Sequence to fold (158 residues):
Amino acid sequence: MTETLKVNGQPYAVEINPHKALSDVLRDDLGLFGVKVSCGEGECGSCTVLVDGQPVTSCLMLGSQAVGREIVTIEGIGTRDALDPVQEAFIEEQGFQCGFCTPGFILAAKHFLEENPNPTKEEAATAMSGNICRCGAHPYIVNAVMNAAKKIQAQKST
Fold:
């Protein structure tokens, strides 16, 4: 059955198999390869996307469940010429090693900072604990979240 998914502000007509995960629809049908699938069990957070502004492990959500909802992937939050402050902070703080988990972390961090724009380092560490970096970059990721919080605050004050 053909459905319309709104992804990164754009409508897409997609033939959705009722048993296909949202992560697979985004990757296979829409070519959004920033959505990574690692564990396929919702444990690692690599496939995190925002659905109606909330972080969701897209490997556990059916594509059909996303119809009528606003989906944001890493491809939808910045451009090559104008990165999102969270993306900038991850680069500046080297909040990645292999980069596989980075899109999920960035989207989780973006949501967290919208909910808590002035976090403590402990709050940032706790918020990022739902995602796994197998390379061990968690300290850099927490630093990136703190840096992003400062960047966002600075943008708001100008």
About this structure: The radius of gyration is 15 Å. Helices lie at 22-29, 85-92, 102-115, 121-128, 138-157.
